[in-house]
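Re: the request from the purification team.
They wanted to know what the chain is likely to look like in 3D before they choose a buffer screen. I agreed to run a prediction and write the result into the notebook, where they can find it.
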Amino acid sequence: MNPRDLISNAARGFIMGAADIVPGISGGTIALLLGIYERLLASIRTGARSLGRLARGDLGGFIAQLKAIEWAFIGPLLAGIAAAFVVLASVIDRLLTNEPEAMAGLFFGLVLASILIAWQMLNNRDSTRIIVLVSIAVVSFFILGLQSISVTDPGLVLFFFTGAIAICAMILPGISGSFLMLMLGMYTAFVGTVHDQELTNLAVFALGALAGLAAFSTLLSWILEHHRDTLLAALIGLMGGSLRVLWPWPNGVGTIDDSAAKQINGTAVDLPAGFADAWLPLLLGLVAFTVVLALHRFTPDET
């Protein structure tokens, strides 16, 4: 792979990582938007198989599966995701605190465009797929209305299981790993861990993420291979339900205040108080919607 492709994949990973930091938007949505979702899942599935071979003591099979991973694609992608978490965690957290409605409007437009793109990818739009889409959208809309209080001083076991749960959400378009961490009360602890570079907590979180990927990616890949349209319909429904979290008013996606003592609800749905509150989120949402559709039009499908 030439340097241009390496840089391109690292940039895609950076965008995915930036999305995963924001409660309400998933890196899987970005992967779907960029046309690399199925390719990403294939690499994750191969990696899960390699871990399965290692667990059975099949060292030769483990090495063979590792060699089969498309490292020139997945390596830069993972590096970009990691770089986004290191570089942007504090920046995005600050923007969500200081400009929650504007940020929510921006990401609302992005996800709305992603829904339109995913709908165009759906080949079979029969009644079954429509029922799946609407049902998942309604259920996720109400489930995403649940939030939890922040956990203080979480242990390593909680970091492990948070990693396992969050990573599964991160590879599903429409489910935000960050928002699930909010629901688990672990968002503040995780952002603080990244900001303070607490390596032990980060390592345990990463181990949990690997375990979650190994358990979930193979199942998801099988469903995508055998029931692609049904899965796409479900993913569109998830993205539709997630718009509740991204609705700009009254609190954007919801944040943790600067003292980390209070969690601001981001799932309430209201109308803006007036034009002064509405114009910036609407403008950013329209810009994001337009840019995403334009980029998709000129982005080759690599699946």
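For the purification team: The chain has one domain: 3-297.
Please add any questions underneath this entry.
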